[in-house]
Design goal:
Blueprint (H helix, E strand, L loop, with lengths): L2 H4 L5 E2 L5 H10 L4 E5 L5 E6 H8 L2 H5 L1 H5 L3 H4 L11 H4 L9 E2 L5 H11 L3 E5 L5 E6 H8 L3
Parallel strand pairs: 1-2, 4-5
Antiparallel strand pairs: 2-3, 5-6
């Protein structure tokens, strides 16, 4: 099985998309991450859901998880409000990483190796002109790999 066989349409965001809108998209569609595209719709990077959380969770709670326990429940339940006014650009790590993209001919093993190496829950599948053809999620890859 090749990437072209597993690739499915996948939502995208731009660098200017609000972080709160990205979080809503992740939650509403139960996605592991989002593909960030440029103005021409070409993939720039993958935004894992954990990166959105990293921006929403107060730094002091990330550094010392015990501090998260002292926040009362009513305020703790609204931590995502911290995303207000921030953009997808701010969610991305400071150091660029290898872009988890592949061509339509990649095998399941090639995609698995790319996901493992880049620690990405999805791989963007692109054509010759870097046009986004779809994405393969970790779940879709494992579902196929575990078929017997």
């Amino acid at each position: 099985m090749r990437a072209r066989d597993l690739a499915a349409a996948f939502p995208t965001v731009t660098l200017g998309t609000s972080a709160l809108a990205a979080a809503r998209l992740l939650a509403e569609q139960d996605l592991p991450g989002l593909i960030v595209v440029d103005d021409e719709g070409r993939p720039l990077t993958i935004l894992p859901g954990t990166q959105v959380l990293r921006l929403a969770v107060p730094p002091y709670c990330q550094e010392d998880p015990a501090l998260a326990r002292v926040i009362d429940e009513a305020h703790a339940d609204r931590f995502v409000a911290e995303l207000g006014g921030r953009s997808v650009r701010e969610c991305l790590p400071g150091q660029p990483r290898e872009l988890p993209i592949t061509d339509p001919e990649a095998t399941i093993l090639e995609m698995a190796a790319l996901m493992a190496r880049t620690r990405s829950p999805l791989v963007a599948v692109v054509g010759d002109d870097r046009e986004l053809l779809g994405a393969v999620t970790l779940q879709a890859l494992l579902d196929r790999a575990l078929e017997t």
